[in-house]
Amino acid sequence: MVGPTAKGSGVRPFAHDSSRNRIPTVPTLSSRAGRATLGLLMLTLSALAVVVASTSTPVRAADPVTVLTSTFEDGTGQGWARRGTVEVVENSTAVAHAGTRSLLTSGRTASWNGPSRDLLATVTRGTRYTYSVWARAAAGAGSVQLRMSVERRWQGTANYEQVVNSTTVTDGGWTQLTGGYTLANDADFFAVYVETVSGTASFHLDDFSLSYLPASPIQTDIPSLKTVFANDFPIGAAVGRPQLLAERGQLLAKHFNSVTAGNAMKWDATEPTEGVFTYTDADAIVAFARANNMKVRGHTFVWHNQTPAWVFNDASGQPMTATAANKTLLLARLEAHIRAVGGRYAADVSAWDVVNEVIDENQSDGLRRSTWYTITGLDYIRTAFRVARQVAPNAKLFINDYNTNVQAKRDKLYNLVAQLKAEGVPIDGVGHQQHGNISWPTGAETDSMIAAFIPLGVEQQITEMDTSIYTSSSESFTTPPADRLTSQAARYKAWFDVYRKYKANITSVTFWGLADDETWLDSYPVSRKDFPLLFDVQLQAKPAYWAVIGAASPTASGPASPSTSASSSPSPSASRSPSASPSASASPSPSASASPSAGGCRVKYTVTNQWNTGFQGDVVITNTGPAAVNGWALRWTFANGQVVNQSWSSTYAQSGANVTITNAAWNGVIGANGGTASFGFLSSWSGTNATPTTFTLNGATCVLG
């Protein structure tokens, strides 16, 4: 593609590190320059440990400060300009969200063409801003998928990071796109832009705003998590570079003695181009860990997401097919990558998620049909562990997956680990992601998860834990209700009671994030603000924190909740990742049972993430009939060769173009007169990704929308 392009739309969990274009290479740590660079980082990061005003009472959220607005009411573009050379970005009186004018982009010839606004002189490094804009497709354009991203350049190298995932907008009304982003790296150019996921439809923008919540001091005189659990296991957090700065860096250093690089050590971040390695963000995280005496968990060498397309191209640059030559080439690339990245951090990483999410319990053998598996069978797993042991002999090597609290998946993982260990593959442990919500999994299910793997004699770690306040994709709160926070606290306490019971078997517990101000769940499974961690958007301890440490909250009302956090989009948009996912394929938690009935049904089908070879879909079924549905099967036909390769809160089957999704054990009953059920899936695509036009529920045709 000619011109700028935003990469990695379908990535997982960890907020804005989702994917990168090439960024400057840092000298290797084994070189003098590399050691000097990392040493400088350590000195810089050590300075973050300054003591702030002591307070155990949570600080109430301040009012947001707006630093820029664009209403377009003066008849100009107010600093917005085209990214390309052919599209037209101009003031328009055709429609307006408020007032009489908006910004129209037309004449586009590529999906990346669109309006952009320079913000280099407006934003402050280390401050998290909320980006908000109202969008509408131009008259006659129908439905369009838009997303908002930022472009950062430094010394001639560009980087594109997504702020708001793919969001459906129409020509019949206005839809808000809103999300948060922290500029954490050096930049000599920085701008926000809006583009379409595909196609060249014209669209309007109006009422753009850029705002932030003033920083609050962290609570320095409450017990640190790492001290409370000092005799049990290390307590970790998954972080990106923004979490190393200012108050967030102070919170991280106070409470945690382990860090996981949420995205910075993944393949797309470290080797976006073959043989060209970039370690800027990973080096910063390792330096922070060194400066604060923290362990480092490496995540991850092998995953079916966030792996550059070149990895799976054959010697002639075409997509690989299952041949002996391609198997040899793919395994050679895998070995070279692990030797480079694993070797660089051999002295710093205490544990690696060597392979991530390789189990698909819907397959008879339990193995995900990723390109890794299609080309190499199990040899990619064998090779990854063998090479990792050679280059990082002192690190513990883990196989990591989600929904291991579900017996069907757990059994498949158990059998795979048992087989590989019997072959002599050096697997040291099993990682349980433990993405959940306020109603699932229970303490008993978590207990069964840990107990099941004890006979294997492996270490176990909780690797990506968080607890969504939602039990349905149709829910959305700007401020978390008190009863949800109470339920969340109870859920966390139940889990930690189990972890402590098995502390002889569990060697680390890691949260997938630091605080509610930045979480992958803000865009998964739909776009809305979530509050899944122990600290709120102002970095203050929540009821869940006090429940985990076994103490009463010092205030009757509990920790402060935000008065204005990033507002949720009115219609579902956008991952692990878990990935991004989805890690986009993040471990989806089951929704509370609810959805359509035998008298009629409505289906809302949304592409919430789309990247060059795949996409994430989310579906909400509404029962419009007078009777409940007890057990359901939703069917549709793809028109462009799309292939489903994973689903959650459901079971999938596909025959040719025909897809059948059936309910999971917990959401088979759909209440009458407006009850809903929701599920999500990941699918591959190539060329065109048209939305299915007909859906049937238990044989009855549903309306769309």
Describe this structure in words.
By secondary structure, the chain is α/β, with parallel strands linked by helices. It folds into three domains: 65-212, Galactose-binding domain-like (Jelly Rolls, Sandwich); 233-549, Alpha-Beta Barrel (TIM Barrel); 601-704, Immunoglobulin-like (Sandwich), CATH 2.60.40.290. Helix content is 20%, strand content 29%. The strands form five sheets. It has a nine-stranded mixed β-sheet with strand order 25-29-22-21-31-30-24-27-26, with no helix packed on it. An eight-stranded parallel beta barrel has the order 12-13-14-15-16-17-19-20, surrounded by five helices. Strands 1, 3, 4, 6, 9 and 11 form a six-stranded antiparallel β-sheet that branches. A hairpin with a 2-residue loop joins strand 30 and strand 31. Helix 1 (32-46) packs across helix 5 (280-291), helix 10 packs parallel to helix 11 and helix 11 (482-501) packs parallel to helix 12. The longest helix has 21 residues, at 324-344. The chain is globular. It starts with 31 loop residues before the first helix and ends with a strand. The relative contact order is 0.12. InterPro entries: CBD2, CBM2/CBM3_carb-bd_dom_sf, CBM2_carb-bd_dom_sf, CenC_carb-bd, Galactose-bd-like_sf, GH, GH10, GH10_dom. It catalyses: Endohydrolysis of (1->4)-beta-D-xylosidic linkages in xylans. One of its GO terms (biological process) is xylan catabolic process. Residues 219-551 form the GH10 domain. Keywords: Carbohydrate metabolism, Glycosidase, Hydrolase, Polysaccharide degradation, Repeat.
